[in-house]
Write a structure and sequence with these properties.
Blueprint: H1 16-33, E1 47-52, H2 58-69, E2 73-77, H3 90-98, E3 104-109, H4 114-121, E4 125-131, H5 137-155, E5 165-169, H6 176-187, E6 191-195, E7 208-210, H7 213-216, E8 222-225, H8 241-248, H9 252-257, E9 263-265, H10 288-306
Parallel strand pairs: 1-2, 1-3, 3-4, 5-6, 5-8, 6-7, 8-9
This protein binds aspartic acid and phosphoric acid mono(formamide)ester (CP).
C-alpha cells in the first residue's frame, strides 16, 4: 500500500515550491492570529502530540498554541515524569501514545535522526522540533517568514530572497538552526556566509565561511546570531568565552555599523553577554520577539498542511 502520510523531518522534505507554499500559508495564519478571536475550526477532530525529550520554551509552547488556534486537540508527554523513567523505550512510548489516536507527533530529541525513526513506527505525521545538531525545520520556516514579512514592511516591497546576504554567526558546528536555515535560504536563492571560530565551522558547499566578522558586517542584509551550544560542546573548541565575545558578539560598536535596513535575528534562548552584549530592544533592526510571534503562524501552517486542514475553515 502506498504511504500517503507526510512529514516535516528536515528541510530536505521540501522543495522550493513547497517552501514558498508554506510561507504563503504562514502569511494566512498570521492574519488569523491578528483577529479578535484568533481561532478557526480547520483541524477539529485532529490530535497533535508534543514529545519533547529536550528542553524547550518557544517551540513547545508555540506548537501547542498553533494546534489550539486550529481547534486541534493536544497531548503533551511530560517526559521527565513519564514511564520513560521506568525504562520504556522510545519505540514503545511512541506506539503507546499512537494507540491513543495521534495524527501528528511533534518531536524534539538530543539524537540526530530520531524523527525519521519515529516515522517508521507510527501511522501519524512526524514534525521535527529539533534533533541533536541536525535539523530544526520549523525554526527555519519562521525565520524565513520573518525576513520576508519584515523586509516587505520596512522596505515597502516583497523583494524576495534572491541575492539576500545573510550572515549566520557563532557556533555553526553544533547548531541545527544554522543547518536548517542555511539549507532553506539556499533553496530560495539567498547568499549565506557562516561567521565564527574556525573550530566551530564544518565545511559546507551551501555557505562561504570566515572568522572575520568585522570584515563582513557592512555587507550583510541579515545578522543571525546563534547561541553557543554548551550542552553539545564535548571539548574546549574555543580558547575562552571572553575572546569569543570580543571577536563574535554583537556589541554596541558593531551594532552601530549596521545599515538601517539590516535585520538582527536570534532563534532564542539568548545568552546575553556572550553572543550579544547590546540590548536588542534598542536596535531598530532587531526582530527577535517578532520571530517568536511568527513561530505560532509558521507552526499553524505546517500542522494545517500536513493534517489536511479544511481551507474554507480558515477564511474570515
Ligand atoms: N532553541 C534553538 C534550538 O533548540 C536554538 C538554541 O537552543 O540555541 O536549537
Ligand atoms: N528557538 C527555539 O527552538 O527555542 P526553544 O529551545 O525555547 O524551543
Amino acid at each position: 500500500m502506498m504511504d500517503t502520510r507526510r512529514h516535516l523531518r528536515g528541510i530536505g522534505d521540501l522543495d522550493r515550491a513547497a517552501l514558498e507554499r508554506l510561507l504563503d500559508l504562514t502569511d494566512h495564519m498570521a492574519e488569523v492570529g491578528r483577529r479578535a478571536n484568533p481561532k478557526v475550526p480547520a483541524l477539529r477532530g485532529r490530535t497533535m502530540c508534543n514529545l519533547f525529550f529536550e528542553d524547550s520554551t518557544r517551540t513547545r509552547m508555540s506548537f501547542d498554541t498553533a494546534a489550539k488556534r486550529l481547534s486541534a486537540d493536544t497531548m503533551t508527554l511530560a517526559v521527565g515524569s513519564s514511564s520513560v523513567n521506568k525504562g520504556e523505550s522510545l519505540r514503545d512510548t511512541v506506539e503507546t501514545l499512537g494507540a491513543m489516536g495521534v495524527d501528528a507527533f511533534v518531536v524534539r530529541h538530543r539524537s540526530s535522526g530520531v524523527p525519521w525513526r519515529i516515522a517508521e513506527w507510527t501511522e501519524a505525521s512526524v514534525i521535527n522540533a529539533g534533533d541533536g545538531w541536525h535539523q530544526h525545520p520549523t525554526q527555519a520556516l519562521l525565520d524565513l517568514y520573518t525576513i520576508r514579512s519584515e523586509r516587505a514592511r520596512r522596505l515597502g516591497e516583497d523583494a524576495g530572497f534572491e541575492g539576500l546576504r545573510v550572515g549566520v554567526i557563532g557556533d555553526i558546528r553544533h547548531s541545527r538552526v544554522a543547518r536548517s536555515l542555511t539549507e532553506a535560504l539556499g533553496l530560495l536563492g539567498a547568499v549565506v556566509v557562516h561567521i565564527g571560530p574556525r573550530t566551530l565551522m564544518p565545511p559546507t558547499p551551501l555557505a562561504r565561511s570566515t572568522d572575520d566578522l568585522d570584515g563582513e558586517l557592512e555587507d550583510l542584509d541579515v545578522v543571525y546570531l546563534l547561541r553557543m551550544q554548551n550542552e553539545r560542546m564535548d571539548a574546549a573548541l574555543i580558547p575562552s568565552g571572553e575572546e569569543y565575545t570580543r571577536r563574535f558578539a554583537l556589541d554596541p560598536q558593531r551594532a552601530g555599523r549596521l545599515g538601517e535596513h539590516v535585520l538582527v535575528m536570534h532563534p532564542g534562548p539568548m545568552n546575553r553577554g556572550v553572543e550579544i552584549t547590546v540590548d536588542p530592544t534598542t536596535l531598530p533592526g532587531a526582530v527577535v520577539t517578532t520571530q517568536v510571534t511568527n513561530g505560532i503562524a509558521a507552526r499553524m501552517a505546517v500542522l494545517f498542511d500536513l493534517l489536511g486542514g479544511v481551507e474554507t475553515e480558515v477564511s474570515a
